[in-house]
């Protein structure tokens, strides 16, 4: 029977019928796996954004006339062609990240409280490690100003 509210327990099916936990050890290993996959998701998203930044910086290098805000992702997308290798690589990374994100959503839909906490903590720790801008490099991404896109 599928749960429709959050529950706390060691018996959970995550994503596939073959990924079932019956003991506390298998439950803990599954939570660690969810946590690590979430950290990996943030790493992949960081790689995708840096690839996009690198691609746009090589197409349209910022002017060296001091002053103003350096916003390389807001330049026009001229050059490089519609079917360039960098755009193709970016699309592949976007697809992989989207698939992983949907897997997280489905894992959370098991309604197990431990899975929910493992996913949220994994995303937060991954963001802190890879995407919080701790190295002094802040990246502003403005793909589409429309909130519904």
From TrEMBL:
It comes from the Eukaryota. It is found in: Membrane. It is a multi-pass membrane protein. Its main location: membrane. The keyword Transmembrane helix applies. One of its GO terms (cellular component) is membrane. One of its GO terms (molecular function) is copper ion transmembrane transporter activity. InterPro entries: Cop_transporter. The keyword Cell membrane does not apply. The chain crosses the membrane at residues 24-44, 85-105, 111-130. Keywords: Copper, Copper transport, Ion transport, Membrane, Transmembrane, Transmembrane helix, Transport. Pfam families: Ctr. Belongs to the copper transporter (Ctr) (TC 1.A.56) family. SLC31A subfamily. PANTHER family: COPPER TRANSPORT PROTEIN CTR1 (PTHR12483:SF27), SOLUTE CARRIER FAMILY 31 COPPER TRANSPORTERS (PTHR12483). This is Copper transport protein. It comes from Forsythia ovata.
